[in-house]
Amino acid sequence: MYILRNIIIVATGASLASALDFVEYGNKAFDAIKRNLPDIDIIKPRQLALCPAVWTQVATELSTTFLNTTDLLCNDDARAAIRAAFHDCASWNTSVTGGCDGSLILAPEELTRSENNGLQDIGPKLLALTKKYQAIDSSVTAADMIQFASSVAIVTCPLGPRVQTFVGRTDSSTANVEGLLPDVNAPSADLITLFANKGIDAAELIALIGAHSSSKQFHVDETQAGAPQDDTPGEWDVDFYADTSSKPAGVFVFASDASLAADPQTSATFQSFVGAQAKWNGAFTPAMTKLSLLGIAGGSTGMIDCTAAVPLPRLVPRSLVQRQPIMDRA
User: Fold this and answer.
1) Closest by alpha carbon to 316, among 298, 308, 328?
2) For 184, which of 107, 195, 227, 254 could close a Cys bridge (C-beta 3.0–4.6 Å)?
3) 3-class secondary-structure state, position 305
4) Are 137 and 250 contained in the same domain?
Protein backbone atom coordinates (compact mmCIF):
# COMPACT_ATOMS: atom_id res chain seq x y z
CA MET A 1 0.00 0.00 0.00
CA TYR A 2 2.86 2.40 0.77
CA ILE A 3 4.46 1.92 -2.65
CA LEU A 4 1.20 2.05 -4.56
CA ARG A 5 0.02 5.16 -2.75
CA ASN A 6 3.19 7.05 -3.55
CA ILE A 7 3.15 5.98 -7.19
CA ILE A 8 -0.38 7.35 -7.47
CA ILE A 9 0.69 10.62 -5.89
CA VAL A 10 3.46 11.09 -8.44
CA ALA A 11 1.27 10.17 -11.39
CA THR A 12 -1.58 12.38 -10.27
CA GLY A 13 0.67 15.31 -9.50
CA ALA A 14 2.52 15.07 -12.81
CA SER A 15 -0.75 14.86 -14.76
CA LEU A 16 -2.14 17.88 -12.94
CA ALA A 17 0.98 19.90 -13.56
CA SER A 18 0.96 18.99 -17.24
CA ALA A 19 -2.69 19.94 -17.65
CA LEU A 20 -2.12 23.32 -16.07
CA ASP A 21 1.11 24.06 -17.92
CA PHE A 22 0.84 27.50 -19.55
CA VAL A 23 -2.92 27.20 -19.87
CA GLU A 24 -4.80 28.60 -16.91
CA TYR A 25 -2.22 29.97 -14.59
CA GLY A 26 0.75 30.69 -16.79
CA ASN A 27 4.37 30.12 -15.96
CA LYS A 28 4.25 31.60 -12.47
CA ALA A 29 1.29 29.54 -11.24
CA PHE A 30 2.69 26.40 -12.83
CA ASP A 31 5.99 26.83 -11.00
CA ALA A 32 4.10 27.29 -7.72
CA ILE A 33 2.22 24.04 -8.24
CA LYS A 34 5.40 22.14 -9.02
CA ARG A 35 6.98 23.46 -5.85
CA ASN A 36 4.10 21.97 -3.82
CA LEU A 37 4.42 18.51 -5.33
CA PRO A 38 6.43 15.89 -3.37
CA ASP A 39 10.02 15.62 -4.44
CA ILE A 40 10.59 12.36 -6.32
CA ASP A 41 13.67 11.58 -4.22
CA ILE A 42 11.65 11.86 -1.01
CA ILE A 43 8.94 9.41 -2.03
CA LYS A 44 11.05 6.62 -3.44
CA PRO A 45 9.67 3.26 -2.21
CA ARG A 46 11.57 1.52 0.54
CA GLN A 47 14.16 -0.93 -0.73
CA LEU A 48 13.11 -4.30 0.67
CA ALA A 49 15.49 -7.26 0.90
CA LEU A 50 14.92 -9.69 -1.92
CA CYS A 51 14.19 -13.34 -1.22
CA PRO A 52 17.37 -15.34 -1.88
CA ALA A 53 17.12 -17.15 -5.20
CA VAL A 54 17.93 -20.46 -3.51
CA TRP A 55 14.37 -20.68 -2.18
CA THR A 56 12.98 -20.86 -5.71
CA GLN A 57 15.21 -23.88 -6.27
CA VAL A 58 13.99 -25.40 -3.00
CA ALA A 59 10.38 -24.84 -4.04
CA THR A 60 10.92 -26.61 -7.36
CA GLU A 61 12.33 -29.69 -5.66
CA LEU A 62 9.71 -29.77 -2.92
CA SER A 63 6.84 -29.40 -5.38
CA THR A 64 7.91 -32.65 -7.00
CA THR A 65 8.57 -34.36 -3.67
CA PHE A 66 5.11 -33.54 -2.29
CA LEU A 67 2.96 -34.43 -5.32
CA ASN A 68 1.40 -37.82 -5.93
CA THR A 69 1.54 -37.94 -9.71
CA THR A 70 -1.02 -40.73 -10.02
CA ASP A 71 -3.93 -38.67 -8.66
CA LEU A 72 -2.42 -35.13 -8.48
CA LEU A 73 -3.06 -34.96 -4.74
CA CYS A 74 -0.53 -34.19 -2.00
CA ASN A 75 1.22 -37.21 -0.54
CA ASP A 76 2.39 -38.49 2.85
CA ASP A 77 5.59 -36.42 2.72
CA ALA A 78 3.50 -33.28 2.24
CA ARG A 79 1.28 -34.18 5.20
CA ALA A 80 4.32 -34.83 7.37
CA ALA A 81 5.97 -31.55 6.33
CA ILE A 82 2.90 -29.58 7.38
CA ARG A 83 2.84 -31.34 10.73
CA ALA A 84 6.57 -30.78 11.20
CA ALA A 85 6.06 -27.02 10.90
CA PHE A 86 3.51 -27.16 13.71
CA HIS A 87 5.71 -29.29 15.93
CA ASP A 88 8.89 -27.24 15.50
CA CYS A 89 7.09 -24.04 16.50
CA ALA A 90 4.34 -25.06 18.90
CA SER A 91 6.63 -26.76 21.44
CA TRP A 92 6.94 -23.28 22.96
CA ASN A 93 5.04 -20.77 25.04
CA THR A 94 5.71 -17.25 26.26
CA SER A 95 7.48 -18.47 29.42
CA VAL A 96 10.18 -20.57 27.70
CA THR A 97 12.79 -20.22 24.99
CA GLY A 98 12.79 -22.05 21.68
CA GLY A 99 9.95 -22.04 19.17
CA CYS A 100 10.56 -22.05 15.41
CA ASP A 101 14.26 -22.80 15.64
CA GLY A 102 14.81 -26.03 13.70
CA SER A 103 15.45 -28.02 16.87
CA LEU A 104 12.86 -30.57 15.77
CA ILE A 105 15.37 -31.92 13.25
CA LEU A 106 18.63 -30.60 14.76
CA ALA A 107 18.20 -32.01 18.28
CA PRO A 108 18.00 -35.82 17.97
CA GLU A 109 16.27 -36.23 21.32
CA GLU A 110 13.41 -33.96 20.22
CA LEU A 111 12.56 -35.84 17.03
CA THR A 112 12.51 -39.19 18.84
CA ARG A 113 9.95 -38.11 21.46
CA SER A 114 6.62 -39.93 21.40
CA GLU A 115 4.82 -36.60 20.83
CA ASN A 116 6.66 -36.41 17.50
CA ASN A 117 5.86 -39.95 16.39
CA GLY A 118 5.27 -40.01 12.65
CA LEU A 119 7.85 -37.32 11.92
CA GLN A 120 10.92 -39.55 12.11
CA ASP A 121 10.83 -40.09 8.34
CA ILE A 122 10.32 -36.49 7.17
CA GLY A 123 12.83 -35.11 9.71
CA PRO A 124 15.98 -36.53 8.07
CA LYS A 125 14.66 -35.57 4.63
CA LEU A 126 14.23 -31.94 5.67
CA LEU A 127 17.65 -31.96 7.32
CA ALA A 128 19.26 -33.37 4.15
CA LEU A 129 17.57 -30.65 2.09
CA THR A 130 18.84 -28.03 4.51
CA LYS A 131 22.43 -29.22 4.15
CA LYS A 132 22.11 -29.51 0.38
CA TYR A 133 20.95 -25.93 -0.07
CA GLN A 134 23.23 -24.51 2.62
CA ALA A 135 26.05 -25.55 0.29
CA ILE A 136 24.52 -23.23 -2.29
CA ASP A 137 23.54 -20.39 0.07
CA SER A 138 24.82 -20.34 3.64
CA SER A 139 21.82 -18.26 4.77
CA VAL A 140 19.57 -21.32 4.54
CA THR A 141 18.59 -22.62 7.99
CA ALA A 142 16.82 -25.75 9.16
CA ALA A 143 14.19 -23.61 10.88
CA ASP A 144 13.41 -21.82 7.61
CA MET A 145 13.44 -25.08 5.65
CA ILE A 146 10.78 -26.58 7.93
CA GLN A 147 8.42 -23.61 7.54
CA PHE A 148 9.08 -23.13 3.83
CA ALA A 149 8.47 -26.84 3.17
CA SER A 150 5.14 -26.59 4.96
CA SER A 151 4.07 -23.68 2.76
CA VAL A 152 4.97 -25.60 -0.40
CA ALA A 153 3.20 -28.71 0.90
CA ILE A 154 0.00 -26.74 1.53
CA VAL A 155 -0.18 -25.36 -2.02
CA THR A 156 0.65 -28.80 -3.41
CA CYS A 157 -2.62 -30.04 -1.89
CA PRO A 158 -5.54 -29.05 -4.18
CA LEU A 159 -7.37 -26.00 -2.78
CA GLY A 160 -4.43 -25.15 -0.51
CA PRO A 161 -3.74 -21.40 -0.05
CA ARG A 162 -0.42 -19.60 -0.27
CA VAL A 163 0.69 -18.77 3.26
CA GLN A 164 2.86 -15.69 3.82
CA THR A 165 6.29 -17.18 4.34
CA PHE A 166 9.34 -15.55 5.91
CA VAL A 167 12.99 -16.63 6.15
CA GLY A 168 15.68 -15.47 8.54
CA ARG A 169 15.20 -17.74 11.55
CA THR A 170 18.15 -18.78 13.71
CA ASP A 171 18.82 -22.48 14.22
CA SER A 172 19.22 -24.21 17.57
CA SER A 173 20.34 -27.75 18.36
CA THR A 174 18.92 -27.45 21.88
CA ALA A 175 15.69 -29.41 22.17
CA ASN A 176 12.53 -27.43 22.84
CA VAL A 177 10.60 -28.06 26.05
CA GLU A 178 8.68 -31.32 26.10
CA GLY A 179 4.93 -31.46 26.76
CA LEU A 180 3.90 -28.19 25.11
CA LEU A 181 2.36 -29.79 22.01
CA PRO A 182 -1.38 -30.55 21.94
CA ASP A 183 -2.45 -34.05 22.91
CA VAL A 184 -5.02 -35.76 20.66
CA ASN A 185 -6.99 -36.79 23.75
CA ALA A 186 -6.90 -33.43 25.53
CA PRO A 187 -10.21 -31.70 26.41
CA SER A 188 -11.00 -28.48 24.60
CA ALA A 189 -10.48 -26.27 27.67
CA ASP A 190 -6.91 -27.53 28.05
CA LEU A 191 -6.19 -26.94 24.35
CA ILE A 192 -7.59 -23.41 24.42
CA THR A 193 -5.38 -22.57 27.41
CA LEU A 194 -2.36 -24.32 25.88
CA PHE A 195 -2.57 -22.19 22.74
CA ALA A 196 -3.47 -18.99 24.57
CA ASN A 197 -0.12 -19.35 26.34
CA LYS A 198 1.50 -19.33 22.89
CA GLY A 199 -0.36 -16.15 21.91
CA ILE A 200 -2.86 -17.98 19.69
CA ASP A 201 -6.53 -17.37 20.46
CA ALA A 202 -9.39 -19.86 20.24
CA ALA A 203 -10.56 -18.75 16.78
CA GLU A 204 -7.02 -19.07 15.39
CA LEU A 205 -6.73 -22.51 16.99
CA ILE A 206 -9.89 -23.69 15.23
CA ALA A 207 -8.57 -22.41 11.90
CA LEU A 208 -5.21 -24.12 12.44
CA ILE A 209 -6.58 -27.55 13.30
CA GLY A 210 -8.29 -27.55 9.90
CA ALA A 211 -4.90 -28.74 8.63
CA HIS A 212 -6.15 -32.15 9.77
CA SER A 213 -8.08 -32.04 6.50
CA SER A 214 -4.97 -33.41 4.81
CA SER A 215 -3.91 -35.58 7.74
CA LYS A 216 -3.66 -39.31 8.41
CA GLN A 217 -2.98 -40.95 11.76
CA PHE A 218 -0.53 -43.79 12.23
CA HIS A 219 0.29 -43.89 15.94
CA VAL A 220 -2.80 -42.80 17.89
CA ASP A 221 -4.40 -46.16 17.11
CA GLU A 222 -2.01 -48.44 15.29
CA THR A 223 -4.82 -50.89 14.49
CA GLN A 224 -6.15 -48.18 12.16
CA ALA A 225 -2.81 -46.92 10.87
CA GLY A 226 -3.24 -44.70 7.82
CA ALA A 227 -6.81 -43.66 8.68
CA PRO A 228 -7.51 -40.05 7.61
CA GLN A 229 -9.07 -37.23 9.66
CA ASP A 230 -11.53 -36.51 6.86
CA ASP A 231 -12.72 -38.35 3.77
CA THR A 232 -10.40 -36.50 1.34
CA PRO A 233 -6.91 -36.53 2.93
CA GLY A 234 -5.11 -35.55 -0.28
CA GLU A 235 -7.05 -32.29 -0.57
CA TRP A 236 -6.92 -29.06 1.41
CA ASP A 237 -10.69 -28.82 1.79
CA VAL A 238 -13.18 -28.15 4.59
CA ASP A 239 -14.56 -31.68 4.80
CA PHE A 240 -12.71 -32.04 8.11
CA TYR A 241 -15.09 -29.61 9.81
CA ALA A 242 -18.17 -31.57 8.76
CA ASP A 243 -16.63 -35.03 9.15
CA THR A 244 -15.50 -34.37 12.73
CA SER A 245 -19.15 -34.22 13.74
CA SER A 246 -20.71 -36.70 11.30
CA LYS A 247 -17.85 -39.25 11.61
CA PRO A 248 -18.27 -41.03 8.26
CA ALA A 249 -16.98 -44.57 7.94
CA GLY A 250 -13.21 -44.75 7.53
CA VAL A 251 -12.55 -41.35 9.11
CA PHE A 252 -10.61 -41.31 12.38
CA VAL A 253 -11.75 -38.43 14.59
CA PHE A 254 -9.34 -37.25 17.28
CA ALA A 255 -11.00 -36.84 20.68
CA SER A 256 -9.44 -33.37 20.92
CA ASP A 257 -11.02 -32.28 17.64
CA ALA A 258 -14.43 -33.61 18.68
CA SER A 259 -14.12 -31.73 21.96
CA LEU A 260 -13.31 -28.44 20.22
CA ALA A 261 -16.20 -28.95 17.78
CA ALA A 262 -18.63 -29.28 20.69
CA ASP A 263 -17.22 -26.66 23.07
CA PRO A 264 -19.49 -23.56 23.37
CA GLN A 265 -16.36 -21.38 23.18
CA THR A 266 -15.33 -22.74 19.79
CA SER A 267 -18.28 -24.60 18.24
CA ALA A 268 -19.63 -21.57 16.35
CA THR A 269 -16.27 -20.93 14.71
CA PHE A 270 -15.86 -24.63 13.99
CA GLN A 271 -19.27 -24.87 12.30
CA SER A 272 -18.72 -21.62 10.37
CA PHE A 273 -16.06 -23.36 8.26
CA VAL A 274 -18.36 -26.20 7.17
CA GLY A 275 -18.75 -25.82 3.41
CA ALA A 276 -16.90 -22.47 3.52
CA GLN A 277 -13.57 -23.07 1.77
CA ALA A 278 -12.68 -19.45 1.11
CA LYS A 279 -13.56 -18.43 4.66
CA TRP A 280 -11.37 -21.13 6.15
CA ASN A 281 -8.42 -20.37 3.84
CA GLY A 282 -8.77 -16.70 4.78
CA ALA A 283 -8.63 -17.56 8.48
CA PHE A 284 -5.96 -20.24 8.25
CA THR A 285 -3.29 -18.30 6.35
CA PRO A 286 -2.68 -15.48 8.87
CA ALA A 287 -2.94 -17.94 11.77
CA MET A 288 -0.33 -20.19 10.16
CA THR A 289 2.01 -17.27 9.50
CA LYS A 290 1.62 -16.27 13.14
CA LEU A 291 2.44 -19.78 14.30
CA SER A 292 5.50 -19.87 12.01
CA LEU A 293 6.99 -16.96 13.99
CA LEU A 294 6.50 -18.28 17.53
CA GLY A 295 9.51 -17.71 19.75
CA ILE A 296 11.13 -15.24 17.35
CA ALA A 297 11.86 -11.92 19.02
CA GLY A 298 10.30 -9.15 16.96
CA GLY A 299 8.28 -11.57 14.85
CA SER A 300 8.82 -10.91 11.15
CA THR A 301 10.76 -7.69 11.78
CA GLY A 302 14.11 -8.02 10.05
CA MET A 303 13.08 -11.19 8.25
CA ILE A 304 12.71 -11.60 4.48
CA ASP A 305 9.36 -12.30 2.86
CA CYS A 306 9.79 -15.26 0.52
CA THR A 307 6.10 -15.81 -0.20
CA ALA A 308 6.70 -15.14 -3.89
CA ALA A 309 9.04 -18.15 -4.01
CA VAL A 310 6.21 -20.42 -2.82
CA PRO A 311 4.37 -21.80 -5.87
CA LEU A 312 0.92 -20.48 -6.64
CA PRO A 313 -2.00 -22.66 -5.52
CA ARG A 314 -2.39 -25.52 -7.94
CA LEU A 315 -5.08 -25.89 -10.53
CA VAL A 316 -7.23 -28.66 -9.11
CA PRO A 317 -8.11 -31.86 -10.93
CA ARG A 318 -11.31 -31.56 -12.95
CA SER A 319 -13.18 -33.76 -10.48
CA LEU A 320 -12.49 -31.22 -7.72
CA VAL A 321 -13.35 -28.01 -9.56
CA GLN A 322 -16.85 -27.81 -8.12
CA ARG A 323 -15.37 -27.98 -4.61
CA GLN A 324 -13.20 -24.92 -5.25
CA PRO A 325 -14.44 -21.46 -4.11
CA ILE A 326 -16.08 -19.61 -7.02
CA MET A 327 -13.66 -16.68 -6.70
CA ASP A 328 -10.75 -19.12 -6.91
CA ARG A 329 -12.18 -20.54 -10.16
CA ALA A 330 -12.44 -17.14 -11.84
Assistant:
1) 328
2) 254
3) strand
4) yes
pLDDT of residue 39: 43
Amino acid 98: pLDDT: 96
Given this model, what pLDDT does residue 319 score? 56
Count CA within 13 A, CB hemisphere, residue 55: 27
Does the annotation flag 77 for ligand binding? no
Q: Does residue 237 have a known ligand-binding role?
A: yes
pLDDT of residue 20: 36
DSSP letters, 32-95, are: HHHHHSPPTTTTPPP-PPPPPTHHHHHHHHHHHHTEETTTTEE-HHHHHHHHHHHHHHHS--TT
Q: Is 219 a catalytic residue?
A: no
- Residue ranges in the chain whose pLDDT is less than 70: 1-48, 315-330
Same domain, 27 and 69: no
Residue 15 in marked binding region: no
Q: How far apart are CA 276 and CA 210, in angstroms?
A: 12
- 237/323 Cα distance (integer angstroms): 8
Given the residues 79, 83, 87, 198, select the one marked as catalytic: 87
Q: Is 70 annotated as a binding residue?
A: no
Residues 158, 19 share a domain? no
The total number of structural domains that make up the chain: 2
165 in Cβ contact with 305 (< 8 Å) = yes
Q: Has 232 been labeled as part of a binding site?
A: yes
Q: What is the domain range of residue 118?
A: 56-329
Distance in angstroms between the alpha carbons of the first and the last residue of the chain: 24
